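Dear H.,

Thanks for agreeing to be a second pair of eyes. The structure we're designing against is below in token form, covering all 330 positions.
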């Protein structure tokens, strides 16, 4: 894709989510849309498997109903870990991750939409007052160029965002770069089982509504593996699309109208739970992850990090293989 087209897509996405952040409209900005009020957003999150009691701990306006899965459910976060959430919106998964990793861990949200970032930072103030935790940080940035040094996070989360990127292979390379050796991926996103008809892809709201840019399941696997990640597993879920159909979401209704007769939305669009891992030297020695002597040094990635990231690698994790101090520089 040529750079100016990529920039046009980012501008359109930024405009869409800037409006959502300021008006609190849901994902497709339609009158009946999923996140247009807090009850609908809470109901959607519960259907996606979020614990209603845990949702109650979040500041109001954090859950905008923009999620299409539950990356926390596959992340198995541990106290003390450093986590990054790609396309963090108003902070929904960041605040949940911050509670899971606790005061000795850290949760970083990255989003390219300034209005979303401002909202997330305001939410962080009330989150801190409610929980006493100050382990959350929101950074303005693109997921294709993460504002984080090499090899410094234990887990990468993302919820319904990578489909919005005009350069998905680059996003996967960035994920592999920022993960510590042995670090893991827990991502939910919309995916396609087969290509959408052009008329459905061309619907104005379909890009911001996370549908038009969604990849085929096999493309997701290929991008993750090409970035050097291992143990790539993609679980397909039909529930999300069914919920959106049942709520009468206007975007999904319009897409359905463009499908050949007799076809259902779920024949095309699904929510995918994607897990993967960055290899470590233990893999090369034939030990299962987390076992075996020594280790910690990196299996080098196929693609070297861009210069900006190399100069910003303050902890020296990639140069020395010592990732013990990585959290300090994240
Ligand atoms: C569908 S919303 C999901 C928000 C959040 N993950 C949630 O579940 O509530 C997508 C978010 O990703 C951000 N985003 C989209 N493309 C991005 C990119 N290329 N780089 C950084 N952020 C991006 C948008 O600004 C928006 O806040």
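And this is the sequence the design step returned. I haven't edited it by hand at all.
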């Amino acid at each position: 894709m040529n750079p100016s087209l990529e920039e046009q897509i980012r501008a359109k996405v930024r405009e869409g989510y800037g409006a959502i952040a300021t008006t609190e409209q849901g994902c497709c900005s339609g009158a009946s849309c999923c996140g247009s009020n807090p009850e609908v957003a809470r109901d959607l999150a519960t259907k996606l498997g979020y614990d209603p009691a845990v949702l109650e701990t979040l500041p109001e306006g954090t859950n905008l109903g923009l999620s299409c899965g539950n990356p926390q459910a596959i992340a198995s976060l541990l106290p003390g870990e450093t986590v990054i959430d790609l396309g963090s919106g108003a902070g929904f998964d960041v605040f949940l991750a911050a509670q899971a990793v606790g005061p000795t861990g850290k949760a970083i949200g990255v989003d390219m939409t300034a209005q979303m970032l401002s909202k997330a930072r305001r939410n962080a103030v009330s989150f801190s007052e409610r929980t006493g935790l100050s382990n959350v940080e929101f950074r303005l940035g693109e997921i294709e160029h993460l504002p984080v040094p090499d090899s410094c996070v234990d887990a990468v989360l993302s919820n319904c965002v990578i489909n919005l990127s005009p350069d998905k292979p680059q996003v996967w390379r960035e994920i592999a770069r920022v993960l510590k050796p042995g670090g893991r991926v827990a991502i939910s996103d919309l995916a396609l089982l087969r290509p959408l008809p052009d008329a459905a892809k061309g619907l104005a709201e379909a890009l911001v509504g996370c549908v038009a840019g969604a990849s085929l399941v096999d493309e997701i696997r290929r991008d993750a593996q090409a970035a050097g990640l291992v143990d790539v597993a993609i679980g397909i879920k039909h529930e999300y699309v069914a919920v959106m159909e049942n709520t009468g979401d206007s975007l999904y209704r319009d897409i359905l109208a463009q499908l050949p007769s007799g076809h259902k939305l779920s024949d095309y669009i699904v929510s995918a739970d994607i897990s993967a891992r960055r290899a470590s030297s233990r893999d090369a020695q034939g030990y299962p992850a987390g076992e075996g002597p020594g280790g910690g040094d990196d299996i080098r990635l196929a693609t070297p990090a861009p210069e900006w990231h190399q100069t910003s690698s303050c902890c020296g994790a990639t140069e020395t293989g010592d990732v013990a101090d990585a959290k300090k520089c994240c």
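Two observations from my side: The chain has 15 helices and eight strands. The chain has a mean pLDDT of 84.

Warmly,
E.
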